[in-house]
From TrEMBL:
UniProt key word Flavoprotein: no
Annotated HAMAP family: HisC_aminotrans_2
Protein's pathway: Amino-acid biosynthesis; L-histidine biosynthesis; L-histidine from 5-phospho-alpha-D-ribose 1-diphosphate: step 7/9
Region of interest called Disordered, as start-end residue ranges on this chain: 1-31
One Pfam family in the UniProt entry: Aminotran_1_2
Protein's name according to its UniProt entry: Histidinol-phosphate aminotransferase
């Protein structure tokens, strides 16, 4: 009888002979640790599960979809795209129709469609770091070269520097997260305009680069913080992406979307797989959208919790007596530091049952905003860890 270990080593040596693309050699699948601990504050999820009302509507709509599951789903997801257009019109005041909206399995897939349509060999995608760590993976997976500029020390983006970088690099895709992950920084309208204007000066095969503003966390923005949706009419190469994973408490449903000109959306329709969005996903997302008002009430609670977490962190002292650095945030997370040994702080919190994220520039840690009980557990654990280190 072959021992399980022998089977494993046979499997390992077989996989060593697979013709993996050379640029994938040594790469690890993306993802934060999924650990079973009491307080999960590491992947910017919404801590409130959907209410029983929302669950009932989803169950009803999913049952209806299941009854027709012998057929492929609506390939164009027309009804869902119209629901998303209506929601975004309500949220931003900008008139939108389903032809201006694209939907896929999370904004991750939407962004992959963007790179499939507008990136590719001989082309570059540009962003400004620190930013969302999946962006280079979309570029890698579409044979697009990846170029990163920098953000300022306070994580803002200098418009003149951004414009100069765009003209110098000549990317076909420019990705800007606002509010940015992992820093929480939202971009002012003037910066996005400067980026869009600079893009108009770049020639890509007789056209101009596309600019994608990733607004995954937009619903958490503070009053007065703009959405780039307001700029869509002005710039036909601009797109804004959103997701139901955060504000809508539907990370498990996998539904992200993009809004842009219908020509932009048509380009994405070319590269999507047929029937990429299952009937079950379309039904669940449409049902959740019908409850947007009760779901948004939780967003207000999370915003208030975020602001009080920022205030509390600003009162804390590092082991050497200096105050914390706490980044301005318009998202449902806060980046704070800077610790001499951030891993020790992260581990100390984990030992106390609180999982946060070791991400961002050296010395910084990111905490997602949870329920008030979870944030109290975070504050208590961090206080203990800092006392231990003093
Ligand atoms: C900035 C940003 N964009 C996009 C996403 C992807 O979200 P999803 O694929 O769940 O829509 C995330 C997820 O954390 C994010 O932080």
């Amino acid at each position: 009888m072959t021992h399980a270990v022998d089977q494993q080593s046979a499997k390992d040596s077989a996989s060593a002979r697979l013709p993996l693309r050379p640029e994938l050699a040594g790469e690890k699948p993306y993802g934060a640790p999924q650990l079973d601990v009491p307080v999960l504050l590491n992947v910017n999820e919404n801590p409130y599960p959907p209410s029983e009302d929302v669950v009932a509507t989803i169950a009803e709509e999913v049952a209806r979809a299941a009854r027709g599951m012998n057929r492929y789903p609506d390939r164009e997801a027309t009804a869902l795209r119209q629901d998303l257009a209506d929601y975004l019109e309500m949220e931003t005041g900008v008139h939108l129709e389903h032809l201006d909206v694209w939907a896929a399995n999370g904004s991750n897939e939407v962004m992959l469609h963007v790179l499939q349509a507008f990136g590719g060999p001989g082309r570059a995608a540009l962003s400004f770091a620190p930013t969302y760590s999946m962006y280079p993976e979309y570029a890698r997976d579409t044979h697009t070269s990846w170029v990163v500029g920098r953000r300022e020390d306070d994580f803002t983006l200098d418009p003149a520097y951004a414009a100069e970088t765009i003209r110098r690099v000549g990317p076909s895709v420019i990705l800007l997260a606002s509010p940015n992950n992992p820093t929480g920084t939202a971009l002012p309208t003037a910066t996005i305009e400067a980026v869009c204007e600079a893009a108009l000066a770049v020639d890509i095969d007789g056209a101009h680069p596309v600019v994608v503003v990733d607004e995954a966390y937009a619903e958490f923005r503070r009053p007065g913080t703009p959405s780039a949706v307001a700029l869509l009419a002005q710039y036909p190469n601009l797109a804004v992406t959103r997701t139901m994973s955060k504000a809508f408490a539907a990370a498990g449903a996998r539904l992200g979307y993009l809004v842009a000109s219908s020509a932009f959306v048509d380009a994405l329709r070319i590269v999507r797989l047929p029937y990429h969005l299952s009937a079950i996903t379309q039904a669940a997302a449409g049902a959740a959208l019908r409850h947007r008002e009760s779901l948004m009430a939780k967003v207000a609670t999370l915003r208030a919790e975020r602001d009080s977490t920022v205030a509390w962190l600003r009162e804390q002292r590092l082991p050497d007596g200096l105050p914390f650095d706490v980044a301005e945030t318009d998202a449902n997370f806060v980046l704070f530091g800077t610790f001499g040994d951030r891993h020790a702080v992260w581990q100390g919190l984990l030992d106390r049952g609180v999982l946060i994220r070791e991400t961002g520039p050296d010395g910084w840690l990111r905490v997602s905003i949870g329920t008030s009980a979870e944030m109290a557990a975070f504050r208590a654990a961090l206080t203990e860890v800092l006392e231990e280190q003093a």
